[in-house]
Write a structure and sequence with these properties.
With 300 residues, this protein is of the alpha+beta class. It has twelve helices and four strands, in the order ααααααααααββαββα. It is globular and about 70 Å long. About 14% of the residues have low confidence. The structure holds fe (ii) ion. This is HD domain-containing protein.
């Protein structure tokens, strides 16, 4: 028999023996103290995001751990610390791998987990960015799925991924989000229909050249394509082409006689429209550096 206690509500000094609660309190203090030393305008994220995201991920972790038969405590601490590097530094570049040693220090400091559990926690953290890799590792996949679930519940997140992710990674995010929705028995968002046009060979669409004198945005919308890019320099424009295959770039540019392959391009486009016709969304990119960055992104 154990004595019935009141819930601690994370008040310092009253957490008791439940091991995860110590990590939860620790991380809140860490965000508010160490994280707050970098203001929002110097961070890729915001303090508000880190406070909200880690907390909801921990609760989803508990839910998914129960559903998938995984260790609830391992999953909770894994998600609690999965973005620890981004919390501390305000940077997301390679934050999953860089978060490993930071998490190790925290595990050493707070204790409570044996070697086997620590290995699983660290795997959740260091592999959670590899959303495009689908493995048989239930803990690694769990971490990726929970992160995607939480992010996709924010209404604007879908557009963020359209804008920020290269096509293969975008596909992996959408695929995961769609599977999680189905797994939870939730109705499918119509926007996920773009997944139907992603081909196993990595193409999103068929090659398409926009006739001269036709408004490219309008044409793309009428074409039924899922994704198109219009590229142009100051003098010349309008080629729509598949986005993630270098040969397709070559074909599209050569067909008009006005462009060339990006890797050897003497003329990099000065402006781009990246268009998602069936979503009714487009992105304008202008300037050589921005076009170059965005196209490199699509070529990855
Ligand atoms: Fe995350």
């Amino acid at each position: 028999m154990k004595i019935l206690k009141e819930f601690h509500h994370f008040k310092a000094g009253s957490l008791g023996s439940e091991r995860v609660s110590h990590y939860e309190r620790f991380l809140l203090d860490r965000i508010l103290e160490k994280g707050a030393k970098i203001p929002d305008n110097k961070r890729q994220n915001s303090m508000a995001w880190e406070l909200k995201h880690h907390a909801s991920c921990v609760q989803f972790a508990r839910l998914f751990a129960k559903k998938r038969g995984l260790s609830e405590d391992v999953c909770a601490v894994g998600m609690l610390l999965h973005d620890i590097y981004a919390i501390d530094e305000g940077e997301y570049s390679n934050h999953a791998r860089l978060g490993g040693p930071v998490a190790q220090e925290i595990l050493d400091h707070l204790g409570g987990f044996d070697e086997a559990e620590r290995t699983l926690i660290l795997r959740i953290i260091t592999e959670h960015s590899d959303k495009h890799i689908f493995s048989n590792d239930s803990y690694s996949e769990f971490g990726k799925d929970v992160d995607v679930l939480d992010c996709f519940l924010y209404p604007e997140a879908f557009n963020f991924y359209l804008k920020e992710k290269p096509p293969n990674k975008l596909h992996a995010y959408l695929l995961r989000a769609g599977r999680i929705n189905a797994d939870l028995g939730l109705p499918m968002d119509k926007r996920f229909d773009i997944l139907k046009s992603y081909q196993p060979d990595g193409k999103w669409l068929a090659c398409y050249a926009c006739p001269t004198g036709v408004e490219p945005l309008e044409t793309a919308c009428r074409s039924g394509l899922s994704l198109a890019i219009v590229a142009g320099t100051d003098r010349e424009v309008t080629i729509l082409f598949p986005c993630n295959e270098e040969d397709a770039f070559r074909t599209a540019f050569d067909a008009t006689g006005r462009g060339c392959v990006l890797s050897t391009a003497p003329v990099m486009p000065h402006r781009l429209q990246i268009i998602w016709p069936i979503l009714g969304l487009y992105e304008d990119v202008s300037g050589l550096a921005a076009c170059s960055n965005r196209l490199q992104n699509f070529l990855l």
